Amino acid sequence: MSQSLSRRSFLKCAGSGAVSLAAALLTGVSAAGAQPRAVGQPALLDGKAAVELLGYAPAPGLNGVLVYLSVENLSARTLPVGASYLHSRDVSTLNELYSLDSGVTARCGGQSIPCGSFAAPLYAENAADASAFTLNLAAGRGAMLHCFCAVPGEWETLELSYRPA
């Protein structure tokens, strides 16, 4: 992926209270992609990747929120996705969780917050691929990013930025 993609913010979630999200918006990098997107509407990022907000859920045991994104590599080059789900198997503390990195960072209320993330094969991928899933996403392949964000108790806005690893 190009360097320009690595600096772009593509997702904004608006919430009410600690865990109940009222709406989710997805923004891309082009003029068309910069328009708000509802859950399930993909945004094309410079024609090199399609990113889609799949959903979100409260994570009270982690004092935060879980956000699920899909990324599909539309380019002819390999896309690095950083930490894979295989790394998450050995996580036993919150610090270890928040140190997982697939290129997603988070801000809440204008402040940087802890955000750990890892990539896993999409549901439609062949089950055999799951055991061989690597840290690089081949051309035409997709992955689901699992993002764990530590949000304050009365958070209002969550912004995620993606920078390929």
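That was protein one. Protein two is written in the same sequence-then-structure order:
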Amino acid sequence: MKRRRFVESALLAGAGAALGGGRPVSSAQGSRRNWIIPTDTPDRFHMKVMAFNPGPAPDPRSWELTIDGLTGTPLRLKLADLERLPRITQSSRLKCVQCWSGRVLWEGFRAGELLTLARPKPEASWVRIDCADRYFDFVKMDDLLHARTLFALGMNGEALGPEHGAPLRLVIPSKYGYRSSKLITKLTLTNTGGQGIVADAWPGYYSPTGDIEPGVDHPFDFPGETRKIAGGEITEY
């Protein structure tokens, strides 16, 4: 099935907007009560729960992160391995292409700490990111190693919840939220870039770069307010 048709089918099945959701399962696999379901209103973190392909939350006990491709050391890491990496906290605003945003105090680690373990080859200039819900994206290595980009394990003093991308999500503050992949399961280092699944399906709405453009913002943490933005990471509020 071509990527465009797959995305359209997923959304027609009730997947919602693309930011990452849960792993799809059949009804034989149990109740939907543990599924990650999209919301139309902001939650207590001033965020909407966006889902690409709603399904049950990944089990952190069995979850693994695979790193392969142009690496000196292909890896399969458990959550406990990531929790041993040097931790940082960072306040940054997640801006959705739907025109809302929310500021979050993220906790996690820089990509460089993780990639040091994998020993990328010099020609590795892109990273393909695959997620538990079959969402995927391509990120330039330079963007991944940017000083404001991080992999998040927690938010606002709590462990990251599955509805916001646990066990592992990416945060790129200068780009729209669909570039901050959630429920990450695999990183493939490559010398060939590409478009993410949503930019490929809707090129007029989801741009390949995902750069935040000048315009207006409706921050959920400032209810009822509209703010003008200059483009790029929102740092003014």
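The domain at 58-229 is CATH 3.90.420.10 (Sulfite Oxidase; Chain A, domain 2). Keep this in mind for the problem set.
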